[in-house]
Design a protein that fits this description.
- The protein is of the alpha/beta class and about 375 residues long.
- The chain has 2 domains: about 240 residues, Type I PLP-dependent aspartate aminotransferase-like (Major domain) (Aspartate Aminotransferase, domain 2), CATH 3.40.640.10; about 100 residues, Alpha-Beta Complex (Aspartate Aminotransferase, domain 1), CATH 3.90.1150.10.
- The protein has 9 helices and 14 strands.
- The chain has a 7-stranded mixed sheet with strand order 2-10-9-8-5-3-4, with helices on both faces. A 3-stranded antiparallel sheet has the order 11-12-14.
- Helix 2 packs across helix 6 and helix 3 packs across helix 4.
- The radius of gyration is 21 Å and the shape is globular.
- It starts with 6 loop residues before the first strand and ends with a helix.
- The structure holds pyridoxal-5'-phosphate (PLP).
- Pyridoxal-5'-phosphate (PLP) binds next to helix 3.
- The site of pyridoxal-5'-phosphate has 11 residues, from helix 3.
Length: about 375
């Protein structure tokens, strides 16, 4: 098989830096001359203990996480975190506010409703694609927390600001936008992110939590989802996804070597700007259904020929022939979606745009 990199626009698990994969390959059979693979080693070994510490340090440095926040490495994916957030935080008042801007925040709200009272701060739109102005949100001052998804991976809707909550702890799902821009962590109670988009393989979820929010889980909360317990056990309560954590650590070092979050933010503006610009230039042949003020830099959904499904199928087939993979939109929304996470380069996006222009010339009616 070919070892040449494909152009991977997948939404997740997604493209990781080639250099990280090569590094992992190099040390796969014998980690640091131990004669053992990292995946064969105890999570209590000195090697893994160092990785566990290093990954936390890297998250802290890159996001400038203040000292009064813990960094946890958990399992159960983003969906596990939907439940964990509620089980750990909703106890204070029994209620929580949710801003539903797309597929993933809708799922999170549904999950939380198993554990308490969920208030939607604005009515659910039939078709996501906009974020109602913050001044119109109907918040419950008694809410234990306010929840939103920073970037809706399926729908291509991203917040360009951090919502103000009048002192109520703010929780954000940053699974598909973490480490793509600087954020002021002090504005949040909890940030969580499944690693499998911007920072690593699936299997690990990074949770950043303000310490004063620990200590109040529901009785029903399983230990593996109990933030307080996991914090106390320094994320080795039970066997973590050691390999995923190890690769994540390497991706974070790669981000640091490559200019940190300022550079990731700059590149993601350039990459997404190029693609949205190409749609404008296409005069409607390619169209994006999302309001301009909340278009995602990370996941760019678009339609071809006004949503001509046959043409979209052909688009995907021709793209595959050019080794441009995983461009199919999520099954719930259809169309095309190009995900532009940190490891996707500006050159990759230029090739995609070039293909789009050629495709339009051949197929526009
Ligand atoms: N949140 C967001 C923003 C996502 O994109 C996804 C994933 O695909 C999830 C949550 C769910 O993550 P997981 O599949 O790890 O449960």
């Amino acid at each position: 098989g070919s070892t040449q990199s494909a152009l991977n626009f997948g939404a997740g698990p997604a493209k990781l830096p080639r250099e990280v994969l090569e590094d992992v390959q190099k040390e796969f059979l014998s980690y640091q001359d131990t004669g053992m693979s990292l995946i064969e080693m105890s999570h209590r070994s000195k090697e893994y203990t160092k990785i566990n510490a290093d990954v936390q340090t890297a998250v802290r440095e890159l996001l400038q996480v203040p000292d009064n926040y813990k960094i946890l490495l958990m399992q159960g994916g983003g969906c596990g975190a939907f439940a964990a957030v509620a089980m750990n935080l909703i106890n204070r008042t029994g209620a929580a506010d949710y801003a539903v801007t797309g597929t993933w925040s809708a799922k999170a709200a549904k999950e939380a409703a198993k554990y308490g009272e969920v208030n939607l701060v604005f009515p659910k739109a039939d078709k996501p694609g906009s974020i109602p102005d913050r001044s119109t949100w109907k918040m419950n001052p008694q809410a234990s927390y306010v929840y939103y998804c920073d970037n809706e991976t399926v729908d291509g809707v991203e917040f360009s600001y951090i919502p103000e909550t009048n002192g109520v702890p703010l929780v954000s799902d940053m699974s598909s936008s973490i480490m793509s821009k600087k954020i002021d962590v002090s504005k949040f109670g909890v940030i969580f992110a499944g690693a499998q988009k911007n920072i690593g393989p699936s299997g690990v979820v990074v949770v950043i939590i303000r310490e004063d929010l620990l200590g109040n889980p529901m009785k029903c909360c399983p230990s593996v989802f109990d933030f307080t317990h996991i914090a106390k056990e320094n994320s080795v309560h039970n066997t973590p996804a050691t390999f995923s954590v190890y690769v994540t650590e390497k991706v974070l070092q790669w981000i640091k070597r490559n200019g940190g979050l300022d550079e990731m933010a700059k590149q993601s503006q350039e990459k997404s700007g190029l693609l949205y610009g190409a749609m404008v230039a296409s005069g409607g042949f390619y169209s994006c259904p999302i309001d301009e003020d909340c278009r995602s830099r990370m996941n760019v959904p678009f339609r071809v020929g006004g949503g001509d499904e046959k043409l979209e199928e052909l688009f995907l087939q021709e793209a595959e022939k050019l080794r441009m993979h995983q461009l199919k939109g999520h099954r719930s929304v259809g169309g095309i979606r190009a995900s532009l996470y940190n490891a996707v380069t500006l050159a990759d996006v230029r090739l995609l745009v070039q293909f789009m222009e050629e495709f339009q010339k051949r197929h526009a009616k």
